[in-house]
Amino acid sequence: MDSIPSTPGKFKMEKSPYSPFRHRFHSSVAKLLFISLLFLAVFLLFLIKPPPSPSLSNPTEARRNLHSTTWGGQAWEKRVRSSSRPKPHRSKPLIVLVTGAAGFVGSHVSAALKRRGDGVLGLDNFNHYYDVSLKRARQSLLNSQGVFIVEGDINDSSLLRKLFDVAAFTHILHLAAQAGVRYAMENPSSYIDSNVAGFVSLLEVCKSANPQPAIVWASSSSVYGLNTEVPFSESDRTDRPASLYAATKKAGEEIAHTYNHIYGLSITGLRFFTVYGPWGRPDMAYFFFTKDILQGKTIPIFEGPNHGTVARDFTYIDDIVKGCLGSLDTAEKSTGTGGKKRGPAQLRIFNLGNTSPVPVKDLVSILERLLKVKAKKTIIKMPRNGDVPFTHANISLAQRELGYKPTTDLQTGLKKFVKWYLGYYKDVEGKLAF
Ligand SMILES: NC(=O)c1ccc[n+]([C@@H]2O[C@H](COP(=O)([O-])OP(=O)(O)OC[C@H]3O[C@@H](n4cnc5c(N)ncnc54)[C@H](O)[C@@H]3O)[C@@H](O)[C@H]2O)c1
Q: What broad class describes the main subcellular location of this protein (predicted)?
């Protein structure tokens, strides 16, 4: 920078010691050499550059790069068709595409639909948010029951369109999402990617499908956010989310309204309240408390403001499955065709909870009894990173409209979870392998 004159035009070239000819000759050889070197460098760069790979530091890019890699072909189409085919004995069968089928709730509902004779096809991107081997184990179990899980992302519209070409879905059970409240501070874009962009991508394909399917999808009790009215009713305020996760679920509810209004899609949103049970999610407290208690680690128990109790309306997975089936069975047909609305369509939202919140310290006492191990506990103030002090569902609407009636209390449900957990994590020698 120092050699550039501050006033343009004042800079004078030094005289060259070479004759004009020699100067021209040398400069053309130099130019040629420079251009050849440049070509060589570009060529080498192409040769040694590795193919684009999913980047771990950018999950959005990683997920996008997953597209189109593992689907297609005759054998694949055959599996899609066979999985989506209802059993001949089933009267008025549903043909359901379950997104997030390798997940906790998705695997349970897929199995239940298949058992009663409906056609079921799963879709999941097997992301690494938690132990993928657990998702793979659920996949094998479903596979043995005749449910095929297509490996792909809901953001991949060409895959979605292809699935609609191969199978005539009557219903979509949309459970694929980036779950978890605290992880949003670490990886916010994954929430936007799956819960907002992914939902829109799915609705876009559904709206153009002919006939359009009816959609049932998972919202969350977290939309109640800072709401203090108890128990939480569907008509309560949901405009004060306490986490990005909650905000994306709330956005989903508004997006659902738009697609229902413009395109006549029949859409039912389900606000699940802390679902637990066998094959559950390792990022949830009841699950990692079990692991930590067995490993002799200290578990943190949150307390709310002013030493308040933190409580959750824990809902057993079988009750949630019944709520999902009830929603699918009562969903009316979408009214649009070819992307155009032909009349008003059903738009619903339901709480699916258990109506009896339990303090987290009671959850720990139940686990201690079932595991026969005393937990090492430390009480800490609930960090302000998205969790709310309590949840409590009013389920009268779901009771009335879906016949939803939860029947499993926390003690009974945790007993089943612990039995599964000890069996699942026991290695061949009978020791617990985490
Ligand atoms: N479990 C609960 O307590 C609870 C509470 C409220 C709401 N929910 C909602 O219920 C649904 C199911 O929850 P879960 O507990 O089974 O979670 P989960 O994480 O076990 O299941 C979600 C599945 O979706 C898949 N997925 C995520 N993003 C995807 C994408 N872009 N494309 C394709 N697949 C994708 C994941 O791989 C995972 O297998 C989620 O929408 C969640 O937000 C769950």
A: Golgi
pLDDT, tens digit, 9 for 90 and up, residues 373-390: 999 999 998 887 778 888
For residue 168, give the CATH number of its domain.
3.40.50.720
Residue 377 confidence (pLDDT): 95
Residue 270 CA, closest ligand 1 atom number: 7
Of residues 191, 245, 263, 404, which has the active-site annotation?
A: 245
What type of residue is 214? A
CB 160 near ligand 1, within 6 Å = no
Coil, strand or helix at 47: helix
Tokens representing 412 are 């009974």
Q: Are 195 and 251 in contact (CB under 8 A)?
A: yes
Q: How far is the CA of 37 from the centre of ligand 1 (A)?
A: 53
| Residue 43, in any domain of the structure | no
- Does ligand 1 come within 6 angstroms of the Cβ of 66? no
Euclidean distance between CA atoms 41 and 405, whole angstroms? 70
Contact 148, 80 (CB under 8 A): yes
Q: Is the CB of 391 under 6 A from ligand 1?
A: no
Q: Does 181 sit in the ligand 1 pocket, CB within 6 Å?
A: no
The answer to the question of residue 58 being in a domain is: no
pTM as predicted: 0.86
18: annotated active-site residue? no
Strands (E), 313-422: 315-316, 347-352, 358-359, 376-381
Ligand 1: distance of its center to the CA of 103 in Å?
A: 6
* Assigned domain for 24 exists: no
Q: What is the DSSP letter of 162?
A: H
Q: What is the mean pLDDT of residues 341-366?
A: 96
Give per-residue pLDDT as tens, 80-124.
999 999 999 999 999 999 999 999 999 999 999 999 999 999 999
For the Cβ of 102 lying below 6 angstroms from any atom of ligand 1, the answer is yes
Q: How many structural domains are present in the chain?
A: 1
